[in-house]
Specification:
Length: 408
């Protein structure tokens, strides 16, 4: 009708003239990317989204690293599979674009007596996906679809509440320089509220300071709950071998003795998981995940393969010892299988995830936290009622974005 057309025209004009709502997302991992994607679906009002991350690239714990020996080699050393209970519109979009493919790897335990035991339906669903470009490429694909600005290599270290009629927050980097003023703030990491921040950087946790400056009891309560989230830690060693074309020698002969692509050695004090990522030329790749107990023993070793080592001067100390201990554990495992750990042809990389995975039972049992009164939202895999996963992180970001739009 003429009336409905006029109303539609009025809404379009108002949207065009309305100042955009500026939203800052701190964290370029799964929840940060899904939040940005969901915000990009909003057509009712103009929004601008800027994403910040202290790492050199996107992905968070769905991380992929380039080898220093060959830029043609990428190694996934964080989350190695995306498993979902159902196809959300976001996951469906990734699948339709072929950013993700069905995960076809095998998984099982190696019992203490050396007996392999395959694990069927380990993830509790048959909707399991991987990416040929590494898992961080999945997160990059989400940001590409969202078409938002992402500023990596930027450590946000302070939040200042704005006092104008629009409210909001001014963000500052590690050098104290302002990176912009925003109407809404989305935080996807607990580190900004955790005492771990102080142990790493020496400053008071930025979110704790922000809560004090704002005088908001709601924000103070949210920050306190984030401080209560506990994490397991994990060291990762990336082992790589350059393979000639049609290589069928010692490297492949031994790596093929692993009974599964993902092996969990039962009772091993050092290794929690051995992941055979590739045995196809031009590279063979095996990734070692440590136990939490081993990682706690070496908690001051970040490894040159991680971002934290660039920021903390002592991060390289002890790297050789921790890495060698994990390689020796891998050699012992291979010996139990009647093989050996082949001599490396490329330098191994060590990385430490200080906040690897929220401990089950200490995860916040809500999808996300959105505080309209202070224009702050929190998302991440530390929200939800089950074990942390990429799906939980993605869903948390989606939920937070929807609630933000409803609150504007």
């Amino acid at each position: 009708s003429l009336l409905s057309k006029a109303l539609h025209f009025f809404v379009a004009i108002r949207t065009t003239m309305q100042a955009p709502t500026r939203i800052a997302i701190v964290g370029a991992g799964c929840s940060g990317s899904s939040c940005a994607w969901q915000l990009a679906q909003c057509t009712e009002m103009p929004l601008t989204v800027t994403v910040f991350d202290m790492a050199r690239g996107v992905g968070g714990r769905a991380a992929t690293r380039k080898s220093r020996d060959s830029r043609d080699l990428s190694v996934t050393h964080g989350a190695y599979a995306l498993y979902v209970q159902e196809h959300s519109p976001l996951v469906s979009a990734l699948r339709d674009r072929k950013d993700i493919v069905r995960w076809s790897s095998t998984m099982g335990k190696l019992n203490a007596d050396g007996r392999p035991e395959q694990i069927e339906n380990y993830f509790g669903t048959d909707l399991v996906y991987a990416s040929a470009g590494g898992m961080s490429s999945v997160v990059q694909a989400i940001f590409d679809m969202a078409n938002v600005e992402v500023r990596c290599d930027t450590r946000i270290s302070a939040f200042k509440p704005l006092t104008g009629p629009r409210g909001g927050w001014e963000l500052f980097d590690s050098k104290g320089a302002s990176v912009g003023e925003f109407d809404w703030l989305v935080v996807t990491s607990t580190n900004l509220a955790s005492p771990r921040w102080t142990s790493l950087f020496g400053d008071e946790p930025p979110l704790q300071v922000a809560a004090e400056l704002s005088g908001s009891p709601q924000l103070a309560a949210a920050v306190a709950s984030l401080k209560g989230v506990e994490y397991d830690s994990m060291h990762v060693v990336m082992l790589t071998w350059a393979l000639p074309e049609a290589e069928d020698g010692e490297v492949l002969e031994n790596l093929k003795k692993l009974p599964f692509d993902v092996v969990e050695p039962v009772g091993d004090e050092v290794l929690a998981r051995v992941i055979r990522q590739s045995v196809e030329p031009p590279f063979a790749v095996v990734v070692l995940h440590s136990t939490d107990a081993f990682s706690q023993l070496h908690k001051h070793v970040f490894g040159s393969g991680g971002n934290m080592a660039r920021m903390v001067a002592s991060g390289y100390e002890g790297e050789a010892d921790a890495g060698w201990a994990m390689q020796c554990a891998f050699s012992r495992l291979m010996a139990r299988l009647g093989g050996v750990s082949p001599p490396l042809t490329m330098k191994p990389l060590l990385h430490r995830w200080g906040s690897c995975c929220p401990v089950k039972g200490r995860i916040l049992d809500v999808p996300a936290m959105v505080l309209p009164e202070v224009q702050v939202a929190f998302a991440g895999d530390h929200f939800g009622a089950s074990t942390a996963s990429m799906e939980m992180a993605l869903n948390s970001g989606l939920f937070a974005a929807k609630r933000i739009v409803e609150s504007i």
